[in-house]
Structure formats: structure tokens, C-alpha cells
Amino acid sequence: MKRGYKIFISFIITNLMVISFILISHYISESNVVKIEGEKERETYLSIITTNKFLYHMVRDITKDMHEVTYMMKDQKSQWNFKYTEDSIKNISKKDLFIYFGASYEPWASSFVDELKRDNVTVLNASRGIRLMNLNLPIKYNDRVVKENPYYWLNPEEYKTALLNIKNAIGEKDPKNLSFYDKSFNEEMEKVDLIISKLREVSEELEGKTFVLTDDTLDYFFKFTGLNYIKIPSGEGTKREEIEKVNQKLKSTENLIYIYNNEEQLKNYEKLIKDYSMNTVEFLLDSEDIGYKSMMLKNIEKMKNFSEKKEMHK
């Protein structure tokens, strides 16, 4: 009798331990699931890849930590020189979402996308719906000529369109969490609107100043802000009378500011800067380390330094 009683007690204890273990395991499993906007569990975990780190920041602004987001290359130089292989085609084809800037920012992208196996991966050209401008001086890339000006995000309104494209593409892959992406997107729009407000303020303060450009990269920015600028003609086909006309304009214009985006530009136009007593300011185009918002705020602060100078040397 005692032996049967002990067996019965052991049976009860063993079952209680098993049930407790199951309940604890279930609790731990549930606690590791990311709860998003009322969802009981994250059913979709996307693998998203962008062409570069600057675009990566834009995607993370929408997804936060919801999905795996990676990038192919860190800077534009690597991106411009990129030559895809069969391995890179296979690797990207395994992803859920491949996002590129478009507008020939990645001049190899069109042919690369054509090679992808589209059974799994969805491809997004972030420039879809953007009002693109053409380069005054087209660029040769292998056997094609690049005509589109890729720096459309320097117009904050066009940046909004690109971010909307990204949000929609992610939402289509993970519709259950669309409200989460909508919330992230709206928060980003408020931040971009603040940048637009600051740009308008500094543009008013810079009235009377004239910027000097030596390429097409800032066309979107100056068209948006309405700031005064003079563009120096260059490249094959530039006529002597065009150069002379610009020189006369530079001579008759006060408060000139040469705006550049790399040290090579600054060095190449050193004589011009000195001849016309220009101030200089560096403008960031696609900073891979700090992302769009911080980059634009830095640019605004640099330009604001000149707006606070009532008198500039000529």
C-alpha cells in the first residue's frame, strides 16, 4: 500500500514538473516575440537589402528593429565601380526586398535587376514618381550615357516621395504591421517638415548672397530653396562666349560663396575662388554615416554661418 502510494505521489510530482516546464517555455517564447501595435506575434521577418548605407538609414527609419536590414556598399565610389557577379545575383535573389535609389545613382542597377530571380525578392526603385532633372553634363558609364541627375533627395519634398515608396514596399510585404510603418513614416514626415522650415528661414537670411556651382549635383537643392546661384560651364562643347559671360557676371556680383562637396573640387577651382575673393562652404550630398536628417541639418548650419555675416569680403 505504501509502495503504491509513493508511486502515485511520484507520478503527480513528475506531471506537475512537466506541465510547469511547458508553461515556462511557452512564456519565454511569447516574451521573445516583438509585440507591434496590438499584434500577438511577429509572423513576418523580412530580409531587406539596400545598395548603400545612406539608403539603409532611410529603411531603418521605417522598420526600426522589426526586420533584418543590410546594405551592399558603404560609399558612392564603391557603388559606381561595382561590377556584379553570378554570386551577387544569387545572394540578392534570396532576399525579400531589394531597394535601390534609382535615377542612375546606381548606373548598373537596371541590368542587375533584370538578372535577379524574382521568385522571392521584390525590387523597389525608390525614385518611382520623382520629378527627375537631367544633368547638363551627361556622364559616361561603360557603354551608356547617364543623363538623369540622381541627387533628387536634396529636394526634401522628393525625399518624402522616396520614403513613401519605401514604406509602401515594406507594408506590402508585411501588411499586418502596416499601422506600425505608417506611424514611423508620419514621425519622419514631421522631422522633414522641420528641415523644410529651417531651410526656408536660412534662405531668407541668405538673400543677397550668391552661390557658385561647378557641377549639377545641387540643382534639386537650389531649385527648391530659390537661392541665388551662378553655375560655371564646363565639359566638352562649352563655348568661349559662355565662359566670358559667366566671368562678367562674377565680376559684377558681390557676396560670392563657392559651394563644393569634395576636396578635389575645392582644389580644382582654387584659382577661381581666389580671383573673385569667394568664401567657401562644403555641402554634404549623401553622408553614409549620419543619414539624411542629420546631414541636411549640418548643411543648414554651415550655410547659416554666412547668413549671419552682414558683410562679406569681395
Gist of the model:
The chain is an alpha/beta fold and 314 residues long. 49% of the residues lie in helices and 16% in strands. The chain is globular.
Could you characterize the architecture of this molecule?
- With 314 residues, this protein is of the alpha/beta class.
- The chain has helices at residues 2-31, 53-63, 76-80, 86-93, 109-115, 156-173, 178-205, 219-225, 240-251, 263-268, 270-275, 291-307, and strands at 47-52, 68-73, 97-100, 122-125, 134-141, 144-148, 210-213, 229-231, 256-260, 279-282.
- Strands 2-1-3-4 form a 4-stranded parallel β-sheet.
- Strand 1 (47-52), helix 2 and strand 2 (68-73) form a beta-alpha-beta unit.
- The protein is globular.
- The model is unreliable at 21-41 and 310-314 (pLDDT under 50).
Which of globular, elongated, flat, extended, rod-shaped describes the shape?
globular
Oligomer: single chain
N-to-C CA distance: 110 Å
Overall mean pLDDT stands at 86
Per DSSP, the total helix count is 12
Succession of helices and strands? HEHEHHEHEEEHHEHEHEHHEH
The total of beta strands comes to 10
CA radius of gyration is: 27 Å
Structural class: alpha/beta
Widest sheet, order of strands: 2-1-3-4
What is the percentage of strand-forming residues? 15-25%
Biggest sheet: strands, sense, closure? Answer: 4 strands, parallel
How are the SSEs placed, and which strands pair?
Layout: H1 2-31, E1 47-52, H2 53-63, E2 68-73, H3 76-80, H4 86-93, E3 97-100, H5 109-115, E4 122-125, E5 134-141, E6 144-148, H6 156-173, H7 178-205, E7 210-213, H8 219-225, E8 229-231, H9 240-251, E9 256-260, H10 263-268, H11 270-275, E10 279-282, H12 291-307
Helix pairs in contact: 2-6, 6-7, 7-12
